[in-house]
Amino acid sequence: MKFGVFLYQPEPVEGVDYNFYRLKSESGIVGKVNPEMYTNIACFGDNYMAAKRPDWVSVSSWGPALRTNKRYNLRWDVVCMTNPEAREYNLKIIADCAKVSPGISISSQHFADQHFCTCPRCIEQQRKSGLKWLDWRAKTVTDFLAEVKEKVPGNPLFVNCLPDPLMGRERFGYDFEAMAQYTDYFVIPMFSKAYPTPWYWETIARGYKSFLKKPVMVNFYVRGPNETWDTVAPADQIMTVATRVARQGVDGIIFLAEKAEYIREFQKRCVANKEKREFLKGHNGDEVLELFDRWEKMLK
Ligand SMILES: [Zn+2]
């Protein structure tokens, strides 16, 4: 089992197998690649481009793919994924990063949600394809992934999929079987500001693990941008949920933080909580407990 961190600043941390840098998060701001870190790129979730180019925003009969559309739970604004300019823009960033980065991770490489996208270009592309609506959407997502994979020759490609193992095809256009051909690792973000009920996260992990044909990693929220330690889950909740998800057979766990300093503090807090580490023994998630042991040695 592997461990990683998912950071918004290009400074890596020690004590994990993978350091991911969010070079382009859904804010749309593009940073500078760090060759020491794996690079994450959010593709069509892009607040910056949605504001700059309102004509790029994905649309539906239920309104646009904007955070202000309350009929959906959109965490960011989404541009239409069949827009050739948006595709080229993201593919170029991916290709440039892949030349220097040890691997690439992509996010929001899919449709915004159910009913998207019904812009004239998407309607026309579907009509020409002769495929049914859901089949066309799934093929569109898979084809984009194939293009991404071509830009990342020889290096691992991590593909993030939103945490819905049941309705991913209808909502986002995920055809997991087809996507697995171009994916080296699936990553399931499990972001929450609190993890008091690990049962649900275990359920999602178990579901994904039951059918994905490539290794599965999950990602937990330690401390993202604009948070304090009081607005996020206490370390002991993350220790528990990580151990409980590990026992469902996931292949890796990633921890999200704005910067390296917050991961170092999180590592300290995990190591210091001897009582929780003892309690978690016997849960069948020992690899997480061994990670805390390694952090303890590292921090001495
Ligand atoms: Zn469209």
What features would you describe in this structure?
- The chain is of the alpha/beta class and 300 residues long.
- The protein has a domain at 43-183: Alpha-Beta Barrel (TIM Barrel).
- It has eleven helices and eight strands.
- The chain has helices at 47-52, 84-98, 120-129, 133-151, 168-172, 176-179, 198-211, 235-246, 260-272, 274-279, 286-299, and strands at 2-7, 18-24, 38-42, 104-107, 157-160, 185-190, 216-223, 252-257.
- The chain has an eight-stranded parallel beta barrel with strand order 1-2-3-4-5-6-7-8, surrounded by four helices.
- Helix 8 (235-246) crosses helix 11.
- The two termini are 24 Å apart.
- The structure holds zinc ion (ZN).
- Residues 58, 80, 82, 117, 119, 121-122 line the site of zinc ion (ZN).
- Residues 58, 80, 82, 117, 119, 121-122 line the site of zinc ion.
